[in-house]
Amino acid sequence: MKLRKILALVLAVLMVCTVFAACGNDDASSTASGESSTAETSSTAEESETSEDTSSEATTSETGTDGEGVTLNIRLGMEPTSMNTLNSTYSNEFSLINHMYDKLYMLDENDVPQLSAAETVDISDDQLVYTFHLREDGMWSNGDPVTAGDFAFAWQQALNPAVAADYAYFLYFIKNAEAYYNYQGYAADPEAWEEANAELEEPQDPPAEVNWEDVGIKVIDDLTLEVTLDHPTVYAPFMFAFGTMAPINQAFYEECGQDEYNSDAEYFCTNGAYVMTEWVHDSQIVLEKNPNYRNKDSLPVDTLNFRIISDGQTALTAFLAGELDMTELGTQQIVQQAEDAGYEIKSYSDGSSFYAMVNTSDPQLSNVNLRRALALGFDKQGFIDVAIGLPYSPMKAFTAPAVNGADGTSFSEALLKHEGVDAMAPVNGDIEAAKGYLETALSELGITADQLTLSIDCGDSQDAQTQAAFLQNQWLENLGIEVTINPKQTKQGSADRKNGNYQMSITGWSPDYNDPLTFLDMWVSDGGNNDTRWGSAEYDQLIADATVETDVNARQEMFYQCEETIFDQYMIIPIYNRTQSYAVSDKIANIQRSTFTDFNLMTVELA
To answer: What average pLDDT does range 413-436 have in this prediction?
Structure first.
């Protein structure tokens, strides 16, 4: 794991040479990013500014129930930070990707992975070798056939350090994928690697040479892909269904260049149910049925018009005017307005955990006792009641309640039972304990409370600023700490976390697959989505051991220790778990929205 610390420094140099070599620059988000894959999710705490301009052809939904001529207008709460499958990290970005890319597996209406781009798969008795047999009718939107090489090429790019994919680590369940990534980072600039290595307390040996031929990804023929795993992975189908694992048409990608690829409608070449025909940035994205898709006639909707509207009140106004067919309802006031207008309020648990990410490399926030004081110095239930007013729940464990553990039931519930507590930290805070931690922190820092210079980033919507203001007021009233609020657009906030240009930042994470690892492996040292700058060799080892452990009970115990570490070190300040409220027009009878599927309009039932 320590190699990642070296690679992080080397890649900072490499990115100067590679990111600006082409025509554009896609910022990758993290949960902070991003990623994840998500992926990191967006909320009222994390939304971007938007233009309300829309094309006149797409402002009103057409009638019909057979898919012919039907248009649905759906709200997106943010401009995508990146639609490049290698760099996307937000849940709504991955939902768009799911509509445009057919992967080896896709999640069905019950969030169960089902073969899709692959017609069949042979799995070895030791659960290590997956041999996928692709469909013969797979076709790209430009008419090229989909081949096994398209998957291998995409995954090789994800494992290219110069691409800087936040979800590169997602492929580490494949044999030699991590070793290949580490060696590529070293080989790109050995001198920079050696210089960074020399700065470590315990310098490491250079990574062993690992070439692409050594990675467990083999193209047998155009329609056969053999994947050898590093270890048996019960949730492997979930991994193969994830957005980062989507194929890429190599010739098209190389013609566009890394920075232009998927940056505008003209730079998309997809193999899924829909193709992008328009992207007016900060305004709307339009998807049309892919004429080359094998099941195009079964799609219930011809055109999906995603209107980018960050402000919840503006979105509701558009919905009530018949200009939207679905919108999230992000505040109690907006929910009440929708109810008063006669709409049924729908909801689902999207599995999201929201928190304030902490930059532990900051001179003040590097002090763990200050982080403990901030984490215990406010009322999480009060935050929900006052700043949100919706039936969210205080975060009682970092892993969301919807994610299952060893026995197929909620991991977080099992954790709390194991710990003998109602929550890993008091949901109403513990002001006296917080004051004690603050006193210790100030003594260790050699300053007084009025010498603290702290700030917290949040989204630029009014709702997001209201949430940040609640924390600001609680910390001032309870601890005498003044904190400045920095509203930022989502893309800027993501970039600042990635670059370490922040102190605290409100963000969230949604699970990418149904296993606690999807939350807990975020905090490995210099992991792709770990923008806290916190790291621990002990934590890294727990994750490494849990990744290969086949005894589910022993694995669960390791995850318990990870949760204990999070609620001791507080590289994040836990706040809440989200239940998403939304409303649909009378054109929609039923739509799939669930923990692992933000939205699925490929199976929407029309009224």
So the answer is: 98
Cβ–Cβ under 8 Å, residues 169 and 320: no
Q: Which residue has the tokens 């193999």?
A: 271
Q: Residue 102's closest CA among 62, 64, 135, 73? A: 135
- Residue 12's pLDDT is 41
Which tokens is 525 given? 């040292």
How far apart CA 261 and CA 67 sit, in angstroms, is 30
Give pTM, 2 decimals.
Answer: 0.77
Strand, helix or coil at 246? coil
DSSP string, 546-570: HHH---HHHHHHHHHHHHHHHHHH-
List the one residue out of 476, 471, 475, 482 whose CA is nearest residue 506. 471
pLDDT number for residue 68: 58
- Residue 571's φ and ψ, nearest 5 degrees, are -70, -15
Backbone angles phi, psi at 444, to 5 degrees: -70, -35
| DSSP-derived 3-state class of residue 600 | strand
- Contact predicate 427/394, CB 8 Å: yes
* CA dist., res. 400 & res. 411, Å (int): 8
Rounded CA gap, 285 and 72, in Å? 12
- CA 491, 84, 249: angle at the middle one, nearest 5? 170
C-alpha to C-alpha distance for 376 and 441, rounded to whole angstroms: 14
Distance CA 425, CA 396 (A): 7
Q: Quote the mean pLDDT of the chain.
A: 88
In this prediction, residue 61 carries a pLDDT of: 38
- Exposure of 234 by Cβ count < 10 A (0-12 exposed, 13-18 middle, 19+ buried)? exposed
CA atoms of 507 and 489, how far apart (whole Å): 12
341-360: pLDDT as tens digits: 999 999 998 899 999 999 99
520 contacts 543 by C-beta, under 8 angstroms: yes
Identify which of 274, 286, 320 has the alpha carbon closest to the alpha carbon of residue 100: 274
Give the mean model confidence (pLDDT) for residues 382-387: 95
336: pLDDT strictly greater than 90:
yes
pLDDT at 309 over 60: yes
Tokens of 500: 């370490």
Element (H, E) at 575: strand 572-584
For the segment 358-376, the average pLDDT, to the nearest whole number, is 98
How many other CB atoms are found less than 10 A from the CB of residue 62? 14
For residue 225, CA distances in Å to 31, 129, 130, 245, 247 come to 32, 10, 8, 13, 12
